[in-house]
Design a protein that fits this description.
The complex is a heterotrimer. Chain A is α+β, with helices and mostly antiparallel strands. Chain A has three domains: 44 residues, Uridine Diphospho-n-acetylenolpyruvylglucosamine Reductase, domain 2; 112 residues, 2-Layer Sandwich (Uridine Diphospho-n-acetylenolpyruvylglucosamine Reductase, domain 3); 87 residues, 2-Layer Sandwich (Enolase-like, domain 1), CATH 3.30.390.50. Helix content of chain A is 34%, strand content 27%. In chain A, the strands form four sheets. Chain A has a five-stranded antiparallel sheet with strand order 4-5-10-6-7. A four-stranded antiparallel sheet of chain A has the order 11-12-13-14. The mean pLDDT of chain A is 97. Chain B has three domains: 144 residues, Aldehyde oxidase/xanthine dehydrogenase, molybdopterin binding domain (Aldehyde Oxidoreductase, domain 4); 176 residues, Alpha-Beta Complex (Aldehyde Oxidoreductase, domain 3); 342 residues, Aldehyde oxidase/xanthine dehydrogenase, molybdopterin binding domain (Aldehyde Oxidoreductase, domain 4, 2-Layer Sandwich), CATH 3.30.365. Chain B has 17 helices and 29 strands. Chain B has a seven-stranded mixed sheet, sandwiched between helices. In chain B, helix 5 links the parallel strand 11 and strand 12. The termini of chain B are far apart. Classes of the chains: A alpha+beta, B alpha+beta, C alpha+beta. The interface between B and C is large, with 53 and 58 residues.
Chain lengths: 265, 729, 154
């Protein structure tokens, strides 16, 4: 399957990139989600704006305690980062489930977020960590939370001429443990369902679910219950209660339970 | 007739020699179909129906398009091409519904080729294909075979007093068992490169195929050309598993396009096309009833097999259901059987042979019924089998086929020993189950041929009518020839895959190459031995009877020796032989231990034991590779694989994102061993090992799953949601 | 669009269309057909090459993106077949049809270089990014273990 024809521009600055983006002009970062769509001719932009040269967007650093992930940071860089492993271990754990090393060597954190596949791991982990997503367009910068960004399967609030530039992740509470679990058909496959948990027992809990709906969802009832001292099984049942299909509900309850237990170990 | 082999294991036969084929691949010098770029080559793509069922009212090529060379429609083929010929199994009634090369008036499956576009590059051809305007009128598609009343195939055979057996039975057990359609999915997709030389009147076709013979025969039929005007070459082939056996309609179009445009034309199928248009495997369901006496002796089996054949008949579409039917008495001394096959038409791509090609279905249908019978009689499943295993050979089944040899009891005992089944459910979190399944399979048959040449430089060249696509025939056959000629396998060259060079044969499929191709080589090499002795006698001034073969050459009684090179000094010695035989019947026993997670329904196969009896094993390293590869395909069928369609008969698993092949991380420990019951039907005593893994694995895992679920039946793939629901109903 | 790419230590200057995939560029423009194409959607791994030393799917990159970069393909592994992985693959019967082999070798080369005594689970995970339909993977697991351990006592 060969892509339909398109024009190509390698942006040399963020402003240039944003100036070029639009309804028929899409950004090319890691390409791990976009190029398959091009190859299947499911995506047919007139212009591809290659942003891989915008190295200032690839930074991975902490400032004022907050992790700042440039949208262009490679998933492999997230995986290898000692900074992330020490301060945001949920991300280190979740990124290992993203495809395979050969995908992660090119795929970007921002790309995974902007593509918004409901079966993707990073959006769910970032949602669990209350990440904030900053995007830039000709109209300026704005910052969104997960609930505002992820609107539906493969759909975000980003406008066609808007580029995700940075993801800020506040530090989890001291002493909180974290875990990411998922079921997939085969190793590296997209998840059927999964769960991210950040828990400081009887103090703080964040639970995000993959596969309960078309976007990553937090489970506020489960989080309140855990903070009030409920056991993992009860909390997990709350997290899954809105899922209609019986097996999926049971699966999600089990995965959430495991995530909570692993996070509190 | 006693079981014996004329070729006893020695220096090479029976040895696990690594393959000489490997080097080229490991350094990046393999040559598969799409690696060829003849000068001037043009590229072929297809306009394919987006609808599962539609009238094709008109097809309008674009006035012009960048790089466009030609557009071919069904109208252009009228009077110059016929559909591919259909193989009719004996006793089968087939509808006259061959797959048209290009849809004429009606498209019957999503992905069916409607028009062909030739352009300067693949990308430009895809661009131009989008500009072809096709007017479709959508029609109602049939996705569910149960909803179809259009039969493409019927077959029935019965033997023994089936009604009487059922009337007198103490127990009748069985059920409805189904295997969904699967995609063969070799990592190299299909392809063909055609080139026409009008001066020499020769049409050359390179084809990613399982052999040269069927593409040549099919192309000759389609174009109504004599074989002498065709040459088929098979390069390196990246797996086939049955899916590259018949000539693809697209390949026939490539040949026609090459004639029309006067340039080589290449069709390099892409993955999406392969998912849409390559014939699929399995897709059968059976109602099986087993009649037994109070001691568990099997009295009769009835099976009604329904096959979802898809929209048309391709050459080998009728074969897998027929093969499934013929094996429905399995390894057992059942005196009576009645089997019917109905192949129904649906609006899907046709089915055809895929590794096992009816044998896995038969093993699954019968072995599930045997386990259900064991449960009904409260007899241990292995014990029930033991009470009914065939022990005397040759054995004629009630369906009329003769099994040549086997040691079924030994296979069963060994499989159980290897898998070490553990009793019963163990803890709150998991259900544990173990299961065993036997199989018998038909292999070999028809004929193959070989030519053996001793060249003046002393090298032996074998030309075989079979064609490898990963099995390692180059090594295996060299071992066979080297053994007989007392040379080193390195001094034996193998040539395959060129219809101009190799003798005619039947093909590489149905696990037949060693039994048939190997035996043809034995015959040709034996004739070469004769010629060598005849040539040596005057050189050694000794009678033939006094000459002995050894690793130093041919030696006379007085110690004088000639080497092979000397014998061909005056000119190459050449022989040719054809080997023909009845079908040989391999067998085996597989066993599995599985766990099902109660909370989620997730299945883990803990251990798999694979015992195969393929007669004489020429190269155990390669044979084990075949078993493991087949077993992993069988596991894929159990864990993840299913070709799915929606209610509009639209394929919904047409990429690797949706159709998951197993990775190395999903594979459990597999213990594989061989039992060798040589076949009396060929000089090697060989049967066939290519498919056993795919045949035994699904049945064994299915029985283990049913055991874990306390007898509840689930069809493969054993996905979480299905097992969870089975546990919670 | 003009690009300059270093492949296996040799510089190539070429003209490519924007939409030309790196896999097709390597195979058809450069004639290095050792790299194979199995799916063009990034799942099978047959097209795996090394970009600046890192294994990646060449079917998911545009040729233009390789401008100024350095690639290694199977032809650049060891032309004499003496790389420990090549030898081990041969000895352990880790290939049958051979179509997936180049992709596996390019994925595995860094793994065996960096690992000493990988566990079977680690090896299987390292293999999981490439698909093989023929072998069932066992020969590969053994081959990787052998190559990682290296000659001597490892």
């Amino acid at each position: 399957m060969k892509p339909a024809q398109f024009d190509y521009a390698a942006a040399r600055s963020l402003d240039e990139a944003i100036g070029l983006l639009g309804e028929d002009a899409k950004p090319l970062a890691g390409g791990q989600s976009l190029v398959p769509l091009l190859n299947f001719r499911l995506a047919r932009p007139e212009l591809l704006v290659d942003i891989n040269g915008l190295t200032e967007l690839a930074r991975l650093e902490r400032s004022d305690g907050v992790l700042r992930i440039g949208a262009l940071a490679r998933q492999a860089a997230l995986e290898r980062s000692e900074l992330v492993a020490a301060g945001w271990p949920l991300l280190s754990k979740a990124v290992r489930f993203v495809g395979h090393p050969q995908i992660r060597s090119r795929g970007t954190v921002g790309g995974s977020v902007a593509h918004a596949d409901p079966a993707a791991e990073l959006p769910v982990a970032l949602a669990a960590l209350d990440a904030r997503f900053t995007a830039q367009s000709p109209r300026g910068r704005r910052t969104l939370q997960a609930g505002e960004l992820f609107l539906g399967p493969l759909t975000t609030a980003l406008a066609p001429d808007e580029l995700l530039v940075e993801i800020e992740v506040p530090p989890p509470p001291e002493g909180a443990g974290s875990a990411f679990v998922e079921h997939a058909r085969t190793h590296g496959d997209f998840a059927i369902a999964g769960a991210a948990a950040v828990v400081a027992p009887a103090e703080y809990a964040a639970v995000a679910v993959l596969g309960a709906g078309p976007v990553p969802v937090r489970a506020p009832a489960a989080e309140r219950a855990l903070s009030a001292g409920a056991d993992p099984r009860e909390a997990a049942a709350l997290a899954a209660s809105a899922v209609e299909e019986d097996h999926r509900r049971a699966l999600i309850a089990e995965l959430v339970r495991r995530a909570i237990e692993e996070a509190t170990r | 007739m006693g079981a014996h082999a004329e070729l006893t294991p020695g220096r090479f036969v029976g040895r696990p020699l690594p393959r000489r084929e490997d080097e080229r691949v490991l350094v990046g010098r393999s040559q598969f179909l799409d690696d060829f770029h003849p000068p001037g080559v043009a590229h072929l793509v297809f306009v394919r129906s987006p609808y599962a069922h539609a009238r094709v009212i008109s097809v309008r090529p674009p006035e012009s398009a960048a790089g466009l060379v030609a557009v071919i429609t069904a109208r252009d083929l009228e009077g110059r091409a016929r559909p591919l010929p259909i193989q009719t199994p004996e006793g089968a009634e087939l509808a006259d519904e061959p797959h048209p090369l290009l849809a004429a008036g009606e498209a019957r499956y999503a992905g069916q080729p409607v028009a062909a576009v030739v352009a300067e590059s693949r990308a430009l051809a895809e661009d131009a294909a989008e500009l072809v305007e096709v007017d479709y009128e959508e029609l109602e598609p049939i996705a569910d075979p149960g909803a179809s009343d259009l039969d493409l195939m019927r077959w029935r055979r019965a033997g023994g007093d089936v009604d009487g057996a059922f009337a007198s039975a103490a127990v009748v057990a069985g059920g409805r068992y189904a295997m969904p359609r699967l995609v063969a999915a070799p990592i190299e997709t299909r392809g063909a490169l055609a080139s026409h030389d009008p001066a020499g009147e020769l049409l050359t076709l390179w084809c990613s195929a399982q052999d040269t013979h069927r593409p040549l025969r099919h192309l000759a039929h389609v174009l109504d050309l004599p074989a002498e005007r065709l040459r088929v070459l098979v390069p390196d082939v990246g797996g086939a598993f049955g899916s590259k056996g018949s000539l693809a309609p697209e390949a026939a179009i490539a040949a026609i396009a090459a004639i029309d445009v006067g340039r080589p034309v290449k069709w390099a199928e892409d993955r999406l096309e392969n998912f849409l248009a390559a014939y699929q495997g399995r897709g059968m369901e059976a109602d099986v009833e087993l009649a037994l006496d109070p001691d568990g002796r099997m009295l009769a089996v009835r099976a009604r097999i329904r096959a979802d054949l898809g929209a048309y008949l391709l050459p080998a579409t009728p074969m897998p259901p027929h093969t499934a039917a013929m094996l429905m008495a399995g390894c057992y001394t059942i005196p009576a059987a009645d089997v019917t096959v109905t192949g129904v038409r649906t609006n899907k791509v046709p089915t055809g042979p895929y590794r096992g090609a009816g044998r896995p279905e038969a093993a699954y249908f019968l072995e599930r019924a045997v386990d259900d019978a064991a449960r009904a009689l409260a007899i241990d499943p292995a014990e029930l089998r033991r009470r009914n295993l065939i022990a005397d050979f040759p054995h004629r089944s009630p369906l009329g086929w003769t099994y040549d040899s086997g040691d079924y009891r030994r296979c069963l005992d060994l499989a159980l020993e290897l898998v070490r089944p553990r009793p019963g459910p163990v803890d709150d979190e998991r259900l544990v189950g173990s299961g065993v399944a036997m199989y018998v399979e038909r292999a070999g048959g028809s004929f193959e041929a070989a030519r053996a040449t001793l060249r003046p430089d002393g090298r032996v060249v074998i030309r075989s009518s079979t064609s490898p696509h990963g099995q390692g025939h180059g090594t295996t056959f060299a071992q066979i020839a080297a053994e007989r000629l007392h040379v080193d396998p390195a001094d034996v060259a193998l040539e395959f895959g060129d219809s101009a060079l190799v003798p005619g044969g039947t093909g590489t499929f149905a696990s037949r190459s060693v039994a048939m191709g190997g035996s043809a080589i034995v015959r040709a090499v034996d004739q070469l031995r004769e010629q060598c002795l005849q040539a040596a006698a005057p050189l050694l001034d000794a009678p033939e009877a006094a000459i002995t073969w050894g690793k130093d050459g041919l030696t006379a009684g007085d110690g004088r020796t000639v080497v092979l090179r000397d014998l061909a000094a005056g000119g190459a010695l050449e022989t040719g032989a054809r080997f023909e035989s009845d079908l040989v019947f391999g067998s085996g026993a597989y066993a599995a231990v599985v766990e099902i997670e109660r909370a989620t329904g997730r299945l883990t196969v803990r251990r798999l034991a694979a015992v195969d009896d393929a007669g004489t094993i020429v190269n155990p390293l390669l044979s084990e590779g075949q078993v493991l590869g087949g077993a992993v395909q069988g596991l894929g069928q159990c864990l993840a694989e299913e070709a799915t369609y929606d209610e509009q008969a639209q394929p919904t698993s047409a990429s690797f994102a949706d159709y998951s092949l197993l990775t190395a991380a999903e594979i459990p420990p597999i213990a594989a061993e061989f039992v060798e019951s040589p076949s009396p039907l060929n000089p090697l005593g060989a049967k066939g090992i290519g498919e056993g893994g795919a045949i035994g694995t699904p049945a064994a895992v299915a029985n283990a799953v049913a055991d874990a679920l306390g007898g509840c039946h689930v069809d493969p793939p054993f996905t979480e949601d299905k097992l969870w629901k089975a546990m919670h109903q | 669009m003009r690009i300059a790419v270093d492949v296996n230590g040799e510089r190539y200057d070429s003209e490519v269309e924007a939409r030309t995939l790196l896999s097709d560029f390597i195979r058809h423009d450069l004639g290095l057909t050792g790299t194979k194409v199995g799916c063009e959607h990034g799942v099978c791994g047959a097209c795996t090459v090394q970009l600046d030393g890192e294994p990646m799917r060449s079917c998911l990159m545009l040729a233009v993106q390789a401008n100024g970069r350095s690639l290694r393909t199977i032809e650049g592994l060891a032309a004499d077949g003496e790389h420990p992985l090549q030898r081990a693959f041969h000895e352990r019967h880790a290939l049958q049809c051979g179509f997936c082999t180049a992709g596996f070798l390019m994925s595995l080369e860094p793994f065996v270089r960096e690992s000493r005594e990988p566990s079977e689970a680690e090896i299987r995970e390292a293999l999981a990014g490439n698909l093989c339909r023929c072998t069932g993977y066992r020969g590969m697991v053994e081959a990787v273990g052998q190559a990682a351990r290296g000659p001597g006592d490892g």
